[in-house]
Amino acid sequence: MIELEALTKRFGAKTAVDHLSFQVKPGVVTGFLGPNGAGKSTTMRMMLDLDRPTSGTVRINGKHYRDLPEPLKHIGALLDAKAMNGGRSAYNNLLCLAQSNRIPASRVGAVLDLVGLTPVARKKSKGFSLGMGQRLGIAAALLGDPEILMFDEPVNGLDPEGILWIRNLMKGLAAEGRTIFVSSHLMSEMSLTADHLIVIGQGRLLADMPMADFIHQNSRSFVRLRSPQQEQLKDVLHRAGIDAAAVPDSGALEVNGVASEQLGELAAQHGIVLHELSPQRASLEEAFMRMTADSVEYHAHAPGTPGAALPDPGTAADDRLLVADRKGGK
User: How many DSSP H helices and E strands does the chain contain?
Assistant: First the structure.
C-alpha cells in the first residue's frame, strides 16, 4: 500500500502539490489523473524520494522509501524509460540494478523474456526505439518482483499489441493482490485498465473513488431517440411531461432522467416507429474534462482567437523561476 498524508511540495513561490492525502490499495489498478501541471509527476517522484516533500509524508508499506531495504523488492517504478544507460546492453542495465538490490541474475533473463526483449538483450539500449525503451523500463520495474508497481505513461510508444499486453499485465498483477498505480493522459486506455481513480488538479485532491462512480458523478447520461415520426414523438413525450431536446443536424432527440425502457413503451403505446433508442453514457474523458475544468493551468488557443496572446512578463518570470528551482534542488 502507498499512503500519502498532507503531502506538499513547493518550488519557490509555486505550490506543485498541496496537502495531498490518499491511499493506493492492493488488489486493484488505481489510475492517477490530472491536467498538465497538476502535480502528478512531482507526487510520484516524492513517493520514490527523488524529490523531498516540503511537508507531509509518503509511506510505502508503512516505511519511507529511503528506509526500505533493497527497495526494488518492495516497489518497482517506470517514470522515465530514458533513464537507462544507453551505452549498456539491455541485459547489463538490468544486471546492474539486480546486483544493487541483491536480486538473482536469473531474474534478468526472466523479465527480459516477459517484456519481449530477449532477442535484443545484448544490444545497447541507446539504439532502442521508444517502444523498446518503454519495455526495458517496464522490465526494470518488474525486476524485484515487487508488491507495488508504479507506471507513468506506460503505453507511451507501444504498438497495439504492446498496449494490450501492458493492460493485461497490470490487471493480472492487481488480481494477484499487488498494488498497481498508473498515470496516463490516454483516457480511453485508462477507462479500460483502471478500477479506481485518484484525480488531482493544481496539486489538490479532486476525486478518490471507483471508476464507475467517477463517471456517474461527473457526467451526463441521457437517451437518444430517432424516429421518422419525430414531431408526433415530441408531442407524445410533451404530453407525458417529458422534455426532449432536438440534436441539430442529426434528426435525433435527447431525453434526460427517463429510462430507455419507459420511452420505448411510451412510443409503442402510440404506434410510433423508433429507428434508435439508445442509452448514452458519458466517457471517462468527458467526465474528466467536466471534473477538472476549473483546474486546468495551461489553456491552448487557436491562432487569432481570444486568449491567444503571449503571457505577461510576470507569468514568464514565474515559469523561469520554477524551472530554475527544479534544476537547482529537488
Answer: 11, 13
Whether the CB-CB separation of 223 and 258 falls below 8 Å is answered with: yes
Measured distance CA(55)–CA(248) in Å, rounded: 52
Between CA 230 and CA 236 the distance in angstroms is 10
Strand order in the sheet with 179-183: 75-78, 148-152, 179-183, 29-33, 196-201, 204-210
Angle of helix 90-100 relative to helix 130-142, nearest 10 degrees, comes to: 20
Residue 307 identity (one-letter amino acid): G
Query: 258-280 pLDDT, tens per residue?
Result: 889 999 999 999 999 999 999 88
Contact residues for 95 (Cβ-Cβ < 8 A; gap 6+): 105, 108
Whether 263 contacts 225, CB under 8 Å: yes
Residue 184 neighbours by CB distance under 10 Å: 20
Helix (H, G, I), strand (E, B) or coil at 249: coil
The per-residue DSSP string of 184-218 comes to -S-HHHHHHH-SEEEEEETTEEEEEEEHHHHHHHT
Q: Taking the model in full, what pTM does it have?
A: 0.75
d(CA 276, CA 230): 11
Cα angle 183, 186, 187 (rounded to 5 degrees) comes to: 95
